[in-house]
Protein 1
Amino acid sequence: METRLIGKSFLDGKPLEIFISEGKIKSVLPSASSPKNFWIGPGFTDIQVNGYGGLDYNSIQSDFLALGQISKKLLQCGVTSHFPTIITNSPEKISALIQQVVQLRKMDSLAHSCISGVHIEGPFISPEDGPRGAHFREFVQAPNWNLFQKWIEQSEGLIRMITLSPEREGSASFIEKCVESGILVSIGHTNATHSQILEAVKAGARLSTHLGNGMHSIIARHPNYLWSQLGAENLSATIIADGFHLPAEVIQVFKKVKAEKLMIVSDSVALAGMPPGDYNAAVGGKVTLTAEGKLHLFGNPNTLAGSAMNILQGISFLLKNELTNLSETWQMASIRPQRLFDTSFEPFQIGQNADLILAEQAPDQTLKILKVLKNGVEIPLD
Ligand SMILES: [Zn+2]
């Protein structure tokens, strides 16, 4: 069966007609016309997903197949590819959580195609209050290659990235070993000095994780780990664009400094995608999710308890506030994260898996998903 999509290219606005057959892009032709505000582009790639829709990759499930719902729900938001993100925990629990994702992918073909990697965030991060964020302090430790290697084996090659802090001895050689193993190293939850950050970049770290968050609330004017990461030429950066984690002016500055190296993640926790209300969360205890999507500690609206937005809501926040234009925002959520792992990735290539979105930009500038194709198959949006 052949499918056809018509819309304006997310890259340059030129009308395109894309034919899809057997799950792949078969041809891409210029179209004489296109519905006015319909846009076509690649599906979104979210490299930091802790959980979604009430389900948590950081909890051992009584029925691990339930986690397959995350892939389904994220697909409806245009996320055709995501990285379950496993945060600081005991080594045994991290092993078990990795194996849970591996088993899920073996049993659930949709999850298999949507989960393109696992992101390990911690436990090799800063123990300091502030940089550590909500990670359990008792399980934070110095980089340990033997341990990480065990997780790589247990993941059957699925671990594609790690967030760590290069603030302890041995960090540079750990980073080099990760790079040799084809694993992307991202700096985050760090209290590293300027020279430690430069050394990490020299060793092969290429990204900063949710830059501007997982920090002390007050830092020295200079030097500090924020300037060091902003100034490092070879570091790309992810940001959480939910409107609560970073003020608009910070995003404006990061965009100017990082330019095409800036991208977005959701960093969503299990309560993302749930109705507003009070909940008991695995991390943070009693929390409140507001109608605006802010997740904070119960009775304390100033202390965030994780991100409750999906990447599409992040995109809409950037667009609504005119922080980035449609083309750039789409790239920040799709080809930029994809190119971290496949430098030659180009959208709309013949023979490529048809992971595509048709979307409409609403009068308030937000993006509304009209159609999602995963491997050429249309996903019911309900
Ligand atoms: Zn984090």
Protein 2
Amino acid sequence: MQLSGATALVTGANRDLGRHFARELLDRGAAKVYATARRPELVDLPGVEVLPLDVTDPASVAAAAAVAGDVTLLVNNAGVSHGVNLVDGDLSKIRATLDVHFYGTLAMIRAFAPVLGGNGGGAILNVLSNLSWLSYDGNNAYAVAKSAEWSLTNGVRLELAGQGTLVSGLVFGPTATETMRTHASDAVMNDPVDIVRTALDGIEAGTTEIIADRFGAEAKAALLGPPRGFVLETVTRAAG
Ligand SMILES: NC(=O)c1ccc[n+]([C@@H]2O[C@H](COP(=O)([O-])OP(=O)(O)OC[C@H]3O[C@@H](n4cnc5c(N)ncnc54)[C@H](OP(=O)(O)O)[C@@H]3O)[C@@H](O)[C@H]2O)c1
């Protein structure tokens, strides 16, 4: 898909990866970028169309789809990471994690699939994780949610093939954003700009599964062996 002239909508565009997506899309010549956020007053990028959007609120999703009927690229970036395990973690936080990553992404796709179809097919980019393929003791609810989002991505790809919509998943590991800086040093994490550029190169090339770093490649390779977890400490130790 050609991004020059495209109309994109990015969820969670007020900071970190979402903000980088919106900026890079403008840099690549997108005709319009809807930078959406639960708190739109925090969007500070010149040149974007700001829209309020909470992906877990059906009325908010419907309102965004009603306004943004010209979208040709949907970037499902919004995410949360509550750091909860499955057996003894707070069940409301487990549900909240799935609400954003799985049900939120699903709600956006259900609302925007007709829009994309009406505009010639377009593309959906779901921002996944190496934890779509690996568990992570301490944040297993997040891994479950990202795994579900990966399966969702593959199912939706089949369902939207008939209308010509490219459905891509972006897989990568620790990246220096606000959330991650509390866990690991910048020196061992990806630069968010590199991840966003690789992702958008993948969309322009029509790639269905964009594996953007070694963490993603290692996680995919690990699927061939016995199930195992990701250990963030190895990342942190590598910095020392
Ligand atoms: N950073 C990494 O190492 C890494 C690695 C792999 C995958 N990812 C994935 O990449 C994506 C972005 O990560 P990030 O590190 O940039 O995250 P982040 O810094 O935590 O930012 C998350 C963004 O999502 C928004 N958001 C949260 N809940 C939302 C909701 N219900 N509706 C709309 N927006 C909502 C946040 O808005 P508020 O500002 O209002 O909270 C914020 O703009 C996520 O899907 C994450 O799972 C990140």
